[in-house]
Structure formats: C-alpha cells, structure tokens
Amino acid sequence: MKGEMKELKLTVNGKPYELEVKAETLLVDLLRQELKLTGAKVGCLDSACGACTVNIDGKAVRSCSVLALQTNGREVTTIEGVADGDKLHPIQQAMIDHGAIECGFCTPGMVMSAKALLDENTNPTREEVKEAIQGNLCADEGYVKYIEAIEIAAREMRGGQ
Amino acid sequence: MIAAFEYFAPKTVREALSLLAKYKEEAKIIAGGQSMLVVMKQRLLTPEYLIDLKGITDLDYIKYDEGKGLRIGALTIHRAIEKSPVIQKHFGVLSEMEGNLATIQTRNWGTIGGNICHGDPAGDPAPVLIALKAKLKLASSAGERIVEAEEFSKDYLEVALEPNEMLTEIQVPTPPAHTGTAYEKLMVMKGDMSIIGAAVSITLDSKGGCGDARIALSNAASVPLRAKKAEKLLIGKTINNGLLTKAGEVASTEATPPADVHGSIEYRREMVKVFVKRVAQLALERAKAA
User: Fold this and answer.
1) At what angle do helices A90-97 and A107-120 cross, to 10 degrees?
2) pLDDT tens column, B140-193
3) What ipTM was reported for this prediction?
4) Cβ under 8 Å to A: B residues 80-109
5) The domain A5-81 is classified under which CATH number: 3.10.20.30, 3.40.630.30, 3.90.190.20, 3.90.550.10?
C-alpha cells in the first residue's frame, strides 16, 4: 500500500539497524532525520554537489540519490563512522593539519570520497585523487589543499612510504 | 518531496516481470535511480508502483566470448564497466565512455540498463552501443525479444519498452578485424552531460579503404541519432581529411539538436562538424592499429 512503512535492515557505521521507513525516503533523510547522523550534508539534493556522499559497501555514493530502502542488507558508512573513537582517520587528520578545510560544508563528502579511494588503493596517482573528488564541489575553491591532504593521508596509510 | 508510491523489491527477474505484468503502465522500474530520482523529486514522475531492480544480482554481470561477443547484464553499474579488464581490452571505447559519465559516485550506483531505459538523448552509452551495433534483450512474462540498440529510443525519455517489459541484457558483437571505435563529447566540466557528442566506428577493408562506418550522435536530436548520410559518404572511399570534413558537414545537416543554456542550435550544429571529424579521425587511427 502507498505510504505504508516498509522494513529496512542495514548496517550504519558498523551498527545493525532494523527500521521502518516510508518507501519514498531518501537515504540522506534517513541518516539525518531518523538516525540523527547529520554529517552528510544536503547541498543541492540534486546529485550535483557531492556534500551528501557516504560509502555504501565501501563505495562512494550520493545519499541524496539513493532510496533508503535500496540499502537493505547493505553496509553504510558516514563521516561519523570514519574516526576510530577519539583517533581521527588519517584523511581527517591530514585535512586538518594541511589546512584543507575552509567552511567545512563539503568536507564530510570529500572525506567519504577520499576514503572510498584509499580503502581500495593507498597509492593513487594525482589524477586518481582528482577523479575521486571530482563530484565534490567546494564553494571556497579549496581543491588543491584537499588533493594534497589526501596524498598525505595516503602516504600515512602506506606506513609513511 | 517525492510523491508516495508502493514499493516492491523483487529478487528475481521472474518476480519483477510478474509485477510488471500486474501493474503495467502504473508501475515504473527503478535501477540505480541516478536520473530517475531527479525527476521524481521534481514530481515530473509520480508512479503508483515502484519496482526496484537493484537487488536482482542475476542481472549484474559482464561476460565475454570471442565468438558471441560481449554480454552485459542490465544492472551492471557504470563503474564496473569502466574498470572491467575484459572491456578495457576488447571494447576500450565503452570503458572510456564510462570514465566520462558523470562522477564516480554516480557510476558506483547507476546502471547501464537504467541509463539506456531513461532514454535521454544526451546520454553517453546509447550512441556508443549504436556505433558498436549492439542489441538489447527485452523480457516480459510472455517471453524475450531482441531489438537493435538504434531502434530502442523513440523520443525524449521514451524507449521501445512495452509496459510489461524490462531490459535484461546488452549484447555487443565482436567487431570485424581492422575496426576502430571512439566516442567524445563536448562538456562544460569533465563528467557533464554531453552538449554534443559523437561515437564513430570505422572498419577498414583489405585495401585500407572504408569498408563500413557508423556514426551516432548524442544530444543532437530527440533520440541518439545515427548520421546515416554521413556514414554513406565514408563507406567505399579512402578516408582523408577532406572527406572527414565533409562527413562532419553532412552529419550536421542530419542533426536537429536542442537549444539550451549550454548552446544554441547553430552552435551545436557547428560542434557536430567538429566532433564527427575529430572522433572519426581517432576511430580511423584505431582501425589502422587494430
């Protein structure tokens, strides 16, 4: 029936959830409004800005462009699940240390795009780094620092090599 | 924001087809939804029933056999096609095309089948598949049929699917020897929809002349457009610079492009000339090297 609640089982940041959601709910709305994980930002809600990027089964995806129900049985990671307790992820640490963050609105999406890249390949070329964050718009024009920070994080993740 | 609908997530093709048979016009299929959710948010599309195919893993595959050619399951994501070693080796143009289709985030969730069925004439896969003489396998609960990729698009956002049908597979034949294929598009930023795009496939005959040619344009008409007159001009001739210029000019007269903020009709016609020539040159080089 239209408008009825549907069952959704998924894992968010390592924690299993069993939820009831309306079919028309977008993943970003589930995360922000139901689960109160407001790290993923709503910039355009039109699949243009990348501020809502999360990882689904380890891949960078825009949470404004996925129905929440489509993540049934899948593993979602948001910016809230990236740090290990109080210890920031190397990507986060590098972005802070390198001054990559300006207003910060696009940062969660940048981190999630970078994480999907570096989880797959800790030795990316500059072109690969650029391609990974190509879909993340920064209104402050902070791209170069982001690219450099991701490369610094990659080195850290390779054990300083 | 999105109008309410009743949601189904079939696990098999058979289950999906029986839902389609039941709800027909009132149902809409969603795959990755990377184009469709945009129009659903705008309420330009308000289906009563939404059939979500994303969970049908049986339609997520890439198979290659030299004799049978390439088979891509309709639910294969763009990124898998882009990164597939077998596609990179035997159908490099498909991988290149995918590399400029939107962004990694979109390619990680969006499917090739969904893209084709959305029927946007500015889409990238359709012209490339037309240049490669691909066929599409459509299924309904009554059976299956095969259509040529070039016959599939009917008008803006309209494709040749019956209400009870879905696309299940893309079939790309192995091109003849000495065939080269290329695709390029005019973009504001890398990954944007094409302002104009051209896919060209050229097969050289034993004497080095043009034995066969296919030219398909994106965003040059209400459907992905085969520039048949321009193809005819090339076939049977020895291709040189002057002939390619002419082919571009002829293709430009075949195009009926839209006008929008990115370009007027006149500008797009000019760009058809540029891109047909440029891409045909690349296809020719590849054909010579093949």
Assistant:
1) 130
2) 999 999 999 999 999 999 999 999 999 999 999 999 999 999 999 999 999 999
3) 0.97
4) 102-106, 108-109
5) 3.10.20.30
